[in-house]
Amino acid sequence: QVQLVESGGGLVQPGGSLRLSCTASGLDFSASIMSWYRQTPGNERESVAMIDSVDRSRKTYADSVKGRFTISRDNAKNTLYLQMNNLKPEDTAVYYCKANIPKTYWGQGTQVTVSS
Question: What average pLDDT does the structure give for the chain?
Fold first, then answer.
């Protein structure tokens, strides 16, 4: 069956960095449009970044993370990444990866907490 497993979350101070990973199995990863979302308690899940399946240079970002976050993928490793720099307390959330092929699959999420 399809599995998306996120890792790399944790506690970091404001201004710090983290790199999230999402390893996929059971699907054609190279054919999947991959995205990162995040969610805080009481709020809807919001899109953070997206990377195309065919054109890996085609990426989109939420305005709130532009210039700080970078999405990338390694199709040979079936892995999606999110490099997060200059983290802010408002980046605190559970981060999820999503695959669209075009059926949608979600990972279980990884907690990111930005606090001093």
Answer: 96
